[in-house]
């Protein structure tokens, strides 16, 4: 549901995510990332894959925080790490 009410925004060349939920307009992810991808293939939860300073990390929508640190140069590696986290949670 959170993704349905979200919009990518760019400010000064940096990307973020803005919530368009009718009950609460707000910035979900601040505009400080080089790239942002949404990956719905990862488990049952939703993840934003974020690139900052050349490295990828991941924001977990249900937790409302960065769960995978910016340690990955390849977006597929961080997506795989997200999948591992999903599997470990059951």
Task: Going across the biggest sheet, name each strand in turn.
Answer: 4-5-6-7
- Element-by-element helix/strand order: EEEEEEEH
Helix content: 10-25%
Largest sheet: 4 strands, antiparallel
Computed structural class: alpha+beta
Low-pLDDT regions: none
Total count of strands: 7
Can you tag this structure with a few keywords?
single chain; four-stranded antiparallel beta sheet; alpha+beta
Give a verbal description of the structure.
The protein has about 90 residues and is α+β, with helices and mostly antiparallel strands. About 15% of the residues lie in helices and about 50% in strands. It has one helix at about 75-90; strands at about 5-10, 15-20, 25-35, 35-40, 45-50, 55-60, 65-70. The longest helix is centred in the C-terminal third of the chain and has 14 residues, at about 75-90. The two termini are about 20 Å apart. The mean pLDDT is about 85.
What's the arrangement of secondary structure elements?
Layout: E1 6-11, E2 14-19, E3 26-33, E4 35-39, E5 47-52, E6 55-60, E7 65-72, H1 75-88
Antiparallel strand pairs: 1-2, 2-3, 4-5, 5-6, 6-7
């Amino acid at each position: 549901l959170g993704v349905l009410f979200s919009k990518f925004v760019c400010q000064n060349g940096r990307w973020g995510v803005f919530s368009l939920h009718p009950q609460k307009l707000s910035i979900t992810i601040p505009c400080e990332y080089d790239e942002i991808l949404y990956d719905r293939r990862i488990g049952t939860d939703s993840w934003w894959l974020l690139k900052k300073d050349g490295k990828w990390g991941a924001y977990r929508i249900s937790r409302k925080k960065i769960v995978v640190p910016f340690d990955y140069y390849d977006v597929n590696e961080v997506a795989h790490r997200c999948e591992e986290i999903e599997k470990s949670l059951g």
